């Protein structure tokens, strides 16, 4: 028991002594450190110049200090197809019920390839797909694909 008390006392003394030495070191070097600031080459404009002269000065300075390199520019092309508010046409809904995994995969790939909007959901043990067909030509092509894969559907 006495050894633990003696060891604890020595640890406290060593800790206090180290904090005291760190404090002395910090105060000694804090007063001896001198910071030298570099002189600036920035010219301060006269207050007598007009505002128009000050506005042109940055342009002249940029022309004098031309760089031998140029930063690359990123090009971006964005296109948005907005529906006309006057367009009241409702797309034809094609509902496919009770799909097995193979037929679902085939139909999913065909719809992705044709970029046709569709939504699928799972009810109980079957997967159902609702397809939104915008035009007659595309509707006929999708119906032919459904007949090819022997998929039964309902048209609404």
Could you please say which CATH topology of the domain at 92-155 applies here?
Alpha-Beta Plaits
Strand order of the largest sheet: 2-3-1-4
Secondary structure tally: strands:
4
CATH second-level architecture of the domain at 92-155? 2-Layer Sandwich
Biggest β-sheet description: 4 strands, antiparallel
User: Measured on Cα atoms, how large is the radius of gyration?
Assistant: 39 Å
What's the rounded overall pLDDT mean?
76
Q: Give the H and E element order.
A: HHEHEEHE
Instruction: Look at the structure and give the CATH class of the domain at 92-155.
Output: Alpha Beta
Count of helices?
Answer: 4
The assigned structural class equals alpha+beta
Termini Cα gap: 90 Å
State the shape: flat
List segments where confidence is low: pLDDT < 50 over at least 5 consecutive residues. Answer: none
């Amino acid at each position: 028991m006495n050894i633990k008390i003696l060891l604890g006392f020595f640890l406290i003394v060593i800790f206090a002594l180290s904090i005291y030495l760190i404090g002395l070191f910090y105060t000694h070097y804090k007063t001896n450190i001198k910071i030298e600031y570099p002189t600036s080459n920035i010219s301060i404009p006269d207050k007598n110049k007009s505002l128009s002269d000050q506005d042109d000065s940055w342009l002249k300075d940029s022309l004098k200090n031309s760089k031998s390199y140029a930063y690359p520019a990123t090009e971006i092309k964005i296109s948005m197809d907005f529906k006309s508010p006057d367009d009241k046409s409702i797309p034809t809904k094609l509902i496919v019920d009770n799909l097995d995994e193979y037929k679902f995969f085939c139909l999913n790939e065909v719809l992705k390839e044709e970029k046709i909007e569709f939504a699928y959901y799972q009810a109980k043990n079957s997967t159902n797909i609702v397809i939104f067909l915008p035009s007659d030509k595309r509707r006929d092509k999708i119906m032919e694909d459904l007949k090819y894969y022997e998929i039964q559907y309902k048209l609404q």
